[in-house]
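Lecture 7 notes: from sequence to structure.
We start with the chain below.
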Amino acid sequence: MKEDQQRKRACAYVCIGSNMGDRAGHLLLAVRAMLNAALPISKLSSVYETEPVDLREQPEFLNMVAELRGTLPLPEELLARLLEIERQLGRQRGPILRGPRTIDLDLLLYDDLEIESQFLTLPHPRLHLRRFVLAPLAEIAPQAIHPTLKRTAAQLLAEVRDPARVEVWPKRKMC
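Predicted structure tokens for the same chain:
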């Protein structure tokens, strides 16, 4: 396949999270690695400190969302690059599903594509259920449309029933 067929002008959203070691440092390294992998980051959300959702007995996460806009690899190649960045940053997939991790990069949306394959599901299957994803996504792209549910990120955030605490980090002390 020719290079021009493997890339297209697109917009995608990636959730970045960490709950092990230097959480903020891992987020920074992930952003730098995405830029080094020629992924055009156009926006970054604030960083949010979030309670773990599925496996609650683990450290709290730092999460953020990056908007990629411009000439992007096709979705499967983009996911492969994100997984390689995770590997380079020390991510080890252990026996505990959704357990602690140094870095987690989840492809949330890629234009209005809906894909269901063994390798990739778009939109991300739990995107609309997770406050820790919706808060930063709605911050930078409130009008981004979930292609299956036909709802904006802002609408999904307003409707989500996830009770987990999600706060902008670091907490600022008021004078």
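Points to note: The longest strand covers residues 61-73. The chain is about 25% helix and 30% strand.
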